[in-house]
Every structure is written in C-alpha cells, then in structure tokens.
Design goal:
0% strand, mainly alpha
Length: 67
C-alpha cells in the first residue's frame, strides 16, 4: 500500500476525527448542513438529475467559460 498523502496541516488522526464527527451526525444535522451550503452558494443552483446524465453534465460544466 502506498504512503498516505494529506493536505498541509492534516494527518491521519485529524482525518479519523473528522470521519467520527461526520458519522455521528443525525439526519437533521445533514439536512441543515446541506441547506446552509445551498444558501452560501450565491450564483449557483442545486438540482436532482438522473445519474445517467452526470457524465454529460460534468462535460458541460468543464467546458463552461464564465462571462
């Protein structure tokens, strides 16, 4: 197995603590976090789409050039 590479300031312990914190979240906490992220995403939208369309949507996003 290859050595793990972490972002600057992160180590295995910090990753484990984050995983434990996320695993302990209730459904209500996940919903609240999603709603907060949506409110912070000015100029962006969140939609549900069929999974089969994701490759094409990703292609369109990658090709998008903001004005």
């Amino acid at each position: 197995m290859k050595d793990q590479k972490f972002p600057k300031g992160w180590d295995e312990q910090k990753v484990r603590e984050l995983i434990e914190e996320l695993d302990a979240r209730t459904e209500e906490e996940w919903v609240a976090a999603d709603e907060a992220a949506i409110q912070d995403a000015e100029g962006q939208s969140v939609i549900a789409v069929p999974s089969a369309l994701l490759p094409e949507i990703r292609r369109l996003i990658a090709a998008h050039r903001p004005d």
